[in-house]
Specification:
Blueprint lengths: L3 H12 L37 H13 L3 E5 L2 H20 L4 E5 L4 H9 L3 E5 L14 H10 L4 E5 L10 H11 L2 E5 L22 E5 H4 L7 E5 L4 H4 L2 H6 L8 H14 L3 H18 L4 E2 L5 E4 L8 H9 L7 E2 L4 E4 L6 H12 L23 H5 L3 E5 L8 E3 L19 H9 L4 E5 L3
Parallel strand pairs: 2-3, 2-4, 4-5, 5-6
Antiparallel strand pairs: 1-7, 6-7, 8-9, 9-11, 10-11, 12-14, 13-14
Helix pairs in contact: 1-10, 2-10, 3-4, 5-6
């Protein structure tokens, strides 16, 4: 498969031109990639008005992913999520629907903040009780019940979630179609799912729009992502660039765009076979490990180490001393992400390190039960209200103004406009959140 962006930039770098344009490094090496770091010079195309090399590259990606339209992001899935919500807002207005989205509670904080910026109404799906803040096992039956009660323009799910759990998207998609709601999927962790056999990508399972972070599971630079449109939403696909421009930088990284372009050539070659081979190796590794596990995502391993007397944090620290760095750890979980770039030595090192971990008395503690929050005001009102930052211990009864959670995993325990109850306070303490941004009291 051709790589038009890569080819253009390499040709330009080979010319050794006098660069009287941005960036200021003028192609001279400081870190190494500077000769290939350009701006939107003639011939390089324009990311959100593409007619040349970027357009051709995006069309290549669309063919690979089976989408009606695929748009690149050099600012991760975060930009794609904001664009999806902007498109839902305009779609709702055209359809005479309320600008309301029904969402799984384990949504990324970018979703919550974008909903506040766009003044969208949110209704939450909670899945099973006491499933932790990162996990939200939404069923088609729960979505059906919710849509029968409320007229929502879209349903928004995170699948796979941070722990590797995937939703029953075909069944949920069928419910959404019956109710005339769009299905949006945050597939940031699952770009590679398209290249399994059979495909487990959201577009192939019924999603109307979804975002993929190429950099999370494919060999692309950090920040590389896709926004995909299914054939079911041609009108939204036609407005893709307009939605992205609302939030995007006007100076996209051509290093990131080249990595997306080069990734197309790999995916058109033997890389899908390598993904499937790696998935088989991860599956075999999972079967050999003595730790309980959760999640069904093929390239992610999520251990539940408390059953063998270790918190996720403590086990992660032990592994780090042996040069093994995990993706994420909290008191209950330890997450590892694999790709075809992981060698046999990587697999062997992890397995040997985990086999050497002594079993101890099981830890019986569990995350506090969150419960259904008390919503005091809309997210937008909370985001733009007068605010103050306080120690978490002093926030009981106060209304959260903005999420104060780190990334990863960036899943808000309390959302904008919700009251911090005793249960919420217990969760904030459990996850080590020491300060909150709350609305000022009059």
């Amino acid at each position: 498969m051709e790589t038009p962006i890569v080819d253009f930039v390499r040709d330009y770098a080979a010319q050794n031109a006098v660069r009287l344009h941005m960036p200021g490094h003028k192609g001279r090496a400081l870190l190494g990639p500077e000769p290939y770091d350009i701006t939107e010079i003639p011939g390089a195309d324009v990311l959100y008005a593409p007619e040349g090399v970027i357009r051709r590259s995006e069309e290549n990606a669309a063919r690979l992913f089976g989408s009606l339209r695929t748009v690149y992001s050099a600012e991760g899935s975060s930009l794609c999520i904001r664009a999806m919500l902007a498109l839902v807002k305009s779609h709702a207005a055209e359809q005479g629907k309320a600008a309301r989205i029904l969402a799984g509670r384990n949504a990324h904080k970018v979703f919550v903040l974008a909903a506040g910026l766009l003044d969208l109404e949110l209704s939450w799906l909670y899945g099973e009780e006491n499933d932790g803040v990162l996990r939200c096992r939404v069923t088609a039956e729960e979505v059906e019940r919710a849509l029968c009660k409320e007229d929502c323009a879209a349903v928004y799910l995170t699948s796979p979630d941070y722990l590797g759990n995937t939703a029953d998207l075909p069944a949920i998609s069928a419910v959404c179609r019956r109710h005339g709601a769009l299905l949006l999927v945050d597939n940031a962790h699952g770009a590679y799912l398209r290249f399994l056999s059979p495909s487990r990508h959201p577009l192939d399972l019924g999603a109307d729009l979804c975002c993929d972070s190429a950099h999370k599971t494919l060999p692309a630079l950090t920040g590389a992502a896709y926004l995909h449109f299914a054939a079911s939403v041609p009108a939204l696909a036609a407005r893709a660039e307009a939605a992205m421009q609302l939030f995007a930088s006007t100076s996209p990284s051509y290093l990131i765009l080249q990595s997306l372009d080069a990734c197309n050539a790999l995916l058109a070659g033997d890389y899908p076979a390598r993904i499937r081979e790696t998935a088989s190796r991860v599956d075999a590794l999972k079967a050999r490990l003595p730790f309980p596990q959760r999640g069904d995502e093929p390239l992610k391993l999520c251990l539940c180490p408390k059953a063998r007397g270790w918190t996720g944090d403590a086990l992660a620290a032990r592994l780090a001393q042996q040069g093994i760095v995990c993706e994420f750890a909290d008191p209950d979980n330890l997450v590892f992400m694999f790709s075809p770039e992981n060698s046999e030595d990587d697999f062997r090192a992890l397995e040997e390190a985990l086999a050497s971990v002594p079993a101890r008395e099981p830890i019986r503690s569990a995350p506090p039960v969150s419960g259904v929050p008390e919503i005091v005001c809309a997210p937008r009102e909370a985001l733009f209200a007068p605010q103050e930052e306080l120690p978490t211990a002093r926030c009981l009864g106060r209304v959260l103004a903005a999420p104060t959670v780190s990334c990863p995993p960036a899943v808000p325990i309390v959302c904008c406009g919700e009251r911090i109850t005793e249960r919420a306070l217990a969760l904030l303490r459990y996850y080590g959140i020491e300060r909150c941004l709350v609305m000022k009291e009059h």
